[in-house]
Amino acid sequence: xxxxxxxxxxxxxxxxxxxxxxxxxxxxxxxxxxxxxxxxxxxxxxxxxxxxxxxxxxxxxxxxxxxxxxxxxxxxxxxxxxxxxxxxxxxxxxxxxxxxxxxxxxxxxxxxxxxxxxxxxxxxxxxxxxxxxxxxxxxxxxxxxxxxxxxxxxxxxxxxxxxxxxxxxxxxxxxxxxxxxxxxxxxxxxxxxxxxxxxxxxxxxxxxxxxxxxxxxxxxxxxxxxxxxxxxxxxxxxxxxxxxxxxxxxxxxxxxxxxxxxxxxxxxxxxxxxxxxxxxxxxxxxxxxxxxxxxxxxxxxxxxxxxxxxxxxxxxxxxxxxxxxxxxxxxxxxxxxxxxxxxxxxxxxxxxxxxxxxxxxxxxxxxxxxxxxxxxxxxxxxxxxxxxxxxxxxxxxxxxxxxxxxxxxxxxxxxxxxxxxxxxxxxxxxxxxxxxxxxxxxxxxxxxxxxxxxxxxxxxxxxxxxxxxxxxxxxxxxxxxxxxxxxxxxxxxxxxxxxxxxxxxxxxxxxxxxxxxxxxxxxxxxxxxxxxxxxxxxxxxxxxxxxxxxxxxxxxxxxxxxxxxxxxxxxxxxxxxxxxxxxxxxxxxxxxxxxxxxxxxxxxxxxxxxxxxxxxxxxxxxxxxxxxxxxxxxxxxxxxxxxxxxxxxxxxxxxxxx
Length: 658
Fold this sequence. Notes:
Layout: H1 10-21, H2 25-29, E1 37-45, E2 52-58, H3 78-87, E3 95-96, E4 115-117, E5 127-128, H4 137-149, E6 166-167, E7 177-180, E8 183-186, H5 214-217, E9 218-220, E10 226-229, E11 233-234, H6 237-240, H7 243-246, H8 259-265, E12 271-273, H9 281-294, H10 299-307, E13 323-325, E14 328-331, E15 338-346, E16 349-358, E17 366-367, E18 371-380, E19 383-387, E20 394-397, E21 403-405, E22 425-426, H11 437-444, H12 446-455, E23 462-464, H13 471-485, H14 495-517, H15 521-541, H16 546-560, H17 565-574, H18 591-594, E24 598-605, E25 608-616, H19 621-629, H20 632-638, E26 645-649, E27 653-657
Parallel strand pairs: 12-13, 14-23, 16-20, 16-21, 24-27
Antiparallel strand pairs: 1-2, 3-4, 4-5, 6-11, 7-8, 7-10, 9-10, 14-22, 15-16, 15-18, 17-18, 18-19, 19-20, 24-25, 26-27
Helix pairs in contact: 8-10, 11-12, 12-13, 13-15, 13-17, 14-15, 14-16, 15-16, 16-17
């Protein structure tokens, strides 16, 4: 900075540096804090267009970010925009959004979004996307050009921060350090691990109970002199960041894990968790794994892998091979209570003397001076916002002297028993939309709740809870119970029905297996429901063979076992099958048995559907082409002309080009 600053600006720059140094990093990063800065008097040369760029010193640019110097782009960064507007600097748009022309003189805010590069010479027209770094075509194009010209090169900057692992609490691994006459020293390896005492007293002192546990606190140093033990414990992430390795062999005492077990199980197949873990636990466990690899802690495991013909190359570069982020279950939408409030209006507030809950739709909306009727949209303690059909919600105050009547709740009622409207949003105790799983389990059973959780939404997206939706999985389990306990005896056996049930059984094995691998649990449950429907029809008709029926029952229990483990275990046992259903091999499908006997053949002419025919499954392309050309509708449309081309797609569609 000293070299960049001109003599004329040196005094102003020095004063500003002293001022900026007094602000914390958090204060300087604040979006609401006014951006300040000073011109240094120096200039930089843009390597792309060779224009002179004034160099300013500003407090919102941190030395810990990149090199500590940035190329401001005020048209497309709000902080730079605010700074440029304050000091009258030129704002030149370099990204043009679709269908909009940006003018730096009249822009009110920075434009941050996709578009195409403008005012960028040879790069004009290059797409700009939301992708980060070199994945963005615009960034990549400029990087390639700088590399070709030899005036720059591509690189990746990592912003790393210190990880403060000490915690002033009881829970956590003790930090193995003691403080003696000569300062701090680490506990020798032969005295590890340092164990937490199990007789601490938790008192409301604001301090860790370890700080006043005399037996833990007082120890000796390496020379046997009195010393004080460190009472801070480690962040629990320090333990969870490598727990997948200790879980392999928790009783192994010759190292952190048994190399043979590591060779068999690692790396972890799937990591599931919220997206926030990308910069928390997932990041930490990746650090640990790479550090352990670099320390050679997997060397013995690698030897075992080679001895068992498994290539260890890359096996310990990452702790997990697949990441899955789950969605979130949102609170259900709930109608607020419909009330009739009688009392008086004082200004804009209606003071209620009596509030009665009535059935929704049973009364007309009223926004009068003596009476208010409508739905409670919001309640804050004793203040209600009521939708009474007026332009704005009516504010109804319910004093403690008012009478509250909630017919659905026995006994004396109060304002806290009134329910307000709930939108679909994140569950929160403060919003009153939390779903208690214990209550659901008590009402429907754990298996039904588990099945509904898998069925009601895509696992990776989540969705709003729907109390009525659990009836479907509940009926599924009731039907499975009926079929699993049925003493099936075929009547007049129908070969076609028998083939159809076996086909559906093996199609379901295939579908559920593939869906579970893809974490598509909702479609897996839906496929099991379809098999249930086919089985119920067969049970009522009693027209399939006993062998195929038994195969279908065993299969539906095995497929449902991971989802509803209790009912399937019980039925498996009642059917006299080997203990336990959860220790059985996963069913395999027979591709031949799963193949449809008939398929629907779609026939197009120049891409437009002209006919649909039911044909035997498994026909080759020539046979399907011939059937399509012989279609009566196709013959009429061709009018004796020969098609230029016949295209068969996936064995189920024929497109005739004329």
